[in-house]
Prior knowledge:
By secondary structure, this protein is of the alpha+beta class. Among the domains are: 56-177, no CATH class; 187-303, Butyryl-CoA Dehydrogenase, subunit A, domain 2; 455-575. 51% of the residues lie in helices and 11% in strands. The protein has 19 helices and eleven strands. The strands form three sheets. Strands 3, 4, 5, 6, 7, 8 and 9 form a seven-stranded mixed β-sheet that branches. Strands 1-2 form a two-stranded antiparallel ribbon. Strands 10-11 form a two-stranded antiparallel sheet. The longest helix is centred in the middle third of the chain and has 35 residues, at 306-340. The chain is globular.
Amino acid sequence: MHRFSSFNRFKHQFKYFTIRKLHDEAKDMSIPFARAKVGTFFQAPPKLRNQYTQDVVLRRYLQRIMPPEVLSEIEPDLTRFGNRVTQDIYEFGLDCEKNPPQLQNFDAWGNRIDKIITTEGWRKLKDISAQEGIVAIAYEKKFSEWIDCINSRSYISSRFHPNIKCNHLKRVYDRLVSRDPEKFWTSGQWMTERQGGSDVANGTETIAIPQSDSTYKLYGYKWFSSATDSDMAFTLARIPSQNGELIKGSKGVSMFYVETKNQFDGKMNNIQVMRLKDKLGTRQVPTGELLLDGSTARLASDEGRGIASITNMLLITRIHNAISSVAAMRRITSMARDYAQSRVAFGKIIGKYPLHVKVLADMELESRGSTLLVLEAARILGLDDTKKANQREQFILRLIIPICKMFTAKKAMSVISEGLEAFGGQGYMEDTGLPRLLRDAQVTPIWEGTTNIMALDVLRAIIKTNGQVMVAFRDDVLEKLEIGKRNVQLKDAIVRVKRSLSAIEMFLHENQDKLEVAARDFAFSLSEIYIGALLIEHASWSGAVKEDVIAAQRWSLMKLSCINDKISFFSNDTVENENDLVMEGYEDLK
């Protein structure tokens, strides 16, 4: 019995030392999954680098068009800010995304408070926008036409000064352009009502009742209010006549200035936040439905000229929409390029596969062309703001803004989608922060006018100017192509762009009855031609590099569509066929 116990003890000791030996050998051999059970391979995330110094297109454009003394003064600030957006600004943005705004309608005692609870990151970003002079810098006028601001809603509000119709607004002007976070105000715009859409003139039901102190009381329901947590807003309403009648259509709509809270007690200005919208993207931005129940407001336009005042706003917000689209394209392209230098597949980094590089090259070409388009629009806007734009530039600005907004928004969706694919499965994971770029970008083809609305606005610009915008467009394109003749490598590209220009002019003159149904194709063709001319011009200056020439050549070869090749698509028969195609089976379901 004693011998049997000793044997068992020996057997257990032998088993223990055998297992221990195998474990030690496993550690020495670094066998995966031995301990942590997650393996030894980890993907390196893309690095977000300085967003100014790494953007060679932006830098060379500024070097080309800006006076050297202006650029030398602002470039250190651009470099600093380009680095900051990869640090605390980026982290605050992630915080906003992870902690979207919440609405608290009532306090613990049943009082209605309609408090919008935002994250610390959102509040910090508001402070940063003041400190960095995102709005203020454009009004300090230090650099004349070379600086414009990038906070659209606050900008359009402050842009009414000094030709402001409402003297009361001068009190808040200093707040809108302040660099002091304690004084700084942001502004919203509340135009959309339940009917929604771009038909604001017929969709506005809010009523403005005149008061004895020259103010108005607003009664209505705003279906979609941008920047709901802002300090002020512009909105639309109808003023009844003395007999109580309302003028229908655009002539009955006026614009009003509203402060969201009362000055005397800090409570809501008879505004109830009914709910916050549950949106696909831009979830970090509070967007709500508002009930105006006697909100105090002041007239901010001539009576009945509200729609005309909005037109001035759209000039700005559509450019800012395009800036957002281009920024997202540049961001995803930059990150996909960085990832391609570290991600290994089938034995080598994916940046060594020509097929993958071809995809990245097309993303770069689309984003590069879009960048030049929006920068040119901003340049001309700067001239217009400082009363330095000539008549041709004013016509170009009227035409370029809708095509810029339309083109960049649609391209942002395709470029970002392609960019997510470049990350494989990681591009689909929300915790990488990448899908947010696509979700946020989806608003850009919708906000401030859908693609169809922009295309029709292009036609409206042509009609209202009796074709003068097209004359200005042709002359501007030809001037840029003439500059391109400095570089013999661009000869074929110039011929191709000029041929496309002639084709679209011919289409315009010979197909007046088809313009509405062809509006999209027509507007996109204008965009492609203008970008082609911009790329050629950019590749012709003394500081141009080989890659500028490559971009101009590739655009003229790959991106110019001939609208005349689609002429049969716009016939009456085709329109009927398209309707039949869409509606087949629909009647049977009724």
